[in-house]
UniProtKB/TrEMBL annotation:
Signal peptide limits: none
NCBIfam families: PRK12497.1-3, YraN family protein
Cross-referenced SUPFAM superfamilies: Restriction endonuclease-like
Pfam families in the record: UPF0102 (PF02021)
Organism encoding this protein: Undibacterium piscinae
GO molecular function, one term: nucleic acid binding
Alphabetized PANTHER family for the sequence: UPF0102 PROTEIN YRAN
Record lineage: Bacteria, Pseudomonadati, Pseudomonadota, Betaproteobacteria, Burkholderiales
Protein name according to UniProt: UPF0102 protein EJG51_010040
InterPro entries the UniProt entry points to: Restrct_endonuc-II-like, tRNA_endonuc-like_dom_sf, UPF0102_YraN-like
Family designation: Belongs to the UPF0102 family.
Amino acid sequence: MAEQSWLGKRLARIRTPRQRTGDEGEEQALAFLRQAGLSLVQRSFLCKGSEIDLIMQDGAALVFVEVRKRASAQFGGALASVTPAKQRRMVHAALVYLQKIKPLPACRFDVVAIQDGRIEWLKNVITA
């Protein structure tokens, strides 16, 4: 057991600059959403081929949040990076997550885009 703990800590330190930027973005988004009244249910939910950055509670609704952080709009910006393929992977991960929940809550998919120091929160971006 101690070996896994050691390995987990070691892997957490071995993050690429891009991963660290993503981690920063998730922290900023989490603080922003908490300030808006949402509460954290889970972060970094992983399943085969998919991930959800943040799962939040907004009243009775469960909110699956994709966080995108970009330094500039040079390559289309943060919002443009949420492609149809990424949306399909988000829906897949949400369906996997929801398999363990009864009764099913109301759900929505949000995107928090962080670009040029600004945070933009788009609610209900995917209709599944």
